[in-house]
Amino acid sequence: MNIAIVGTGYVGLVSGACFAELGINVTCVDINNEKIEGLKNGIIPIYEPNLDILVARNSKSGRLHFTPDLLSCLNNVEIVFIAVGTPQDEDGSADLKYVLEVAKTIGSSINKYILVVTKSTVPVGTAQKVKAVIQSEIDKREVEVQFDVASNPEFLKEGDAIDDFMKPDRVVVGVETEQAKELMTRLYRPMLLNNFRVIFMDIPSAEMTKYAANAMLATRISFMNDIANLCELIGADVSMVRKGIGSDSRIGNKFLYSGCGYGGSCFPKDVKALIKTGQKNSYQLKVLEAVETVNDRQKSILFDKFSNYFNGRVDGKKVAVWGLSFKPGTDDMREAPSLVLIDSLLKAGCHVVAYDPVAMNEAKRILGNRIEYAVDMYDAVLDVDAIFHITEWKEFRMPNWGVIRKSMNTPLLIDGRNVYSKAELEGIDYIKIG
Q1: Distance CA 95, CA 91 (A)
Q2: Which of 150, 207, 209, 408 could form a disulfide with 124 if both were Cys (CB 3.0 to 4.6 A apart)?
Q3: C-alpha span between 173 and 186 (Å, rounded)
Q4: Where are the domains positioned within the chain?
């Protein structure tokens, strides 16, 4: 089977490499010539564990190709995935201009049946917009060409994306016709052989499933953060509360960890987009509005704890920030809690020294010379008045606290991920969440 994937961002590149690993002939398309040339030479534009190995192996085997020209492969493939970005618009809705541009190109050029699949996270109704644009371009040419649209949302976790693709909890596919269903069944046959769940449904339901899943996970995070803040006021320990409720089979223990807020490319954008979809349909999603409010508030909680510790006198303090990416396993800093914290620290007159195992280049691109960059976690803590633990990278789990204590000016650790135990900290004041 021959397929094309338009967009070599996180979703497109991971999907392309994994489909190729399953034996499918894949052409990845991107209008960014520099990115395409880099990919041809093994330069991966994002950090994802083992993705470079997968790309190299399948490029060498001749199953994975890269081109800036969709038209060069369009009429040689059976399926085209649209995996371009859907950035957040000014009003919080998803911006579909890139998706619809691809649809326009497809409609203006196809001369045989093709299945067009939206892989990007898009609001309900997008597939119909894509269908209308393609048909409009076909009509302008005064030709008759059959095509179908489908929805195949991704559920990849950054840092675990390859395993998520190859061993999925489920594959959701929205289709309108039997022909589209047959094609998608052929595409995912390796998954079916391994008894993974491929769930077929109508297109609007598939589009909604992606948003609903991310909104539910975001809700669990904000719920636990709210509970954590209440625990502090009444003297309860949120870690114990989490264990207590997580043991309930109706609830489960996933996404019940309190912290300094969620970030990344999915949860913040998708929650906002779903709220906007509700507004467009004259329906207020009150729970999700509260989820967003709690998360925004939670991102400021670490600075508040820091300021309270020093009775508001933080001007001139030197602080270390351990972890910059929104979660471990990625260099993604979109909507990262670290950015909110650093901005508050700088506005308060603090000197910030940061270290992240993977995201340093991304941090330098975003923050420039506003902060200092350390070479490792120990370099970051020299003469500091506080350490902020923001991203739970494994290398931060068991540091030499004796060495760190001697390096610090003020022995204060503010833990945004609740991973440490006060008993192990050897004279360091420990503040956590909840």
Answers
A1: 10
A2: 207
A3: 13
A4: 2-201, 211-298, 301-431
Give the residue ranges of the chain where pLDDT is below 50: none
Active site residue 266: yes
pLDDT digits (tens, 9 = 90+) for 220-270: 999 999 999 999 999 999 999 999 999 999 999 988 889 999 998 789 989
Q: Which of 39, 76, 78 is nearest to 58 (CA)?
A: 39
CATH number of 211-298: 3.40.50.720
* Catalytic site residue from 18, 73, 266, 350: 266
CATH classification of 2-201 is 3.40.50.720, yes or no?
yes
Residue 87: what pLDDT? 78
DSSP assignments along 237-300, one per residue: -HHHHHHHHHTSTTT-STT----S---SSSHHHHHHHHHHHHHHTT---HHHHHHHHHHHHHTT
pTM metric for this prediction: 0.87
C-alpha distance from residue 421 to each of 42, 242, 377, 393, 429 (Å):
42, 16, 19, 16, 11
Q: Sign (positive/negative) of CA torsion 277, 281, 287, 293? A: positive
Q: How many CA atoms lie within 13 A of 44 on its CB side?
A: 20
- Let me know if the fold of 2-201 is the same as that of 301-431: yes
Length of the chain: 434
Residue 84 · residue 120 · CB < 8 Å = yes
Looking at domain 301-431, its CATH class is: alpha beta
Residue 280's pLDDT is 92
- Smallest CA-to-CA distance from 183 within 375, 1, 381 is with 1
Q: What pLDDT does 176 receive?
A: 97
Return the pLDDT at 189: 87
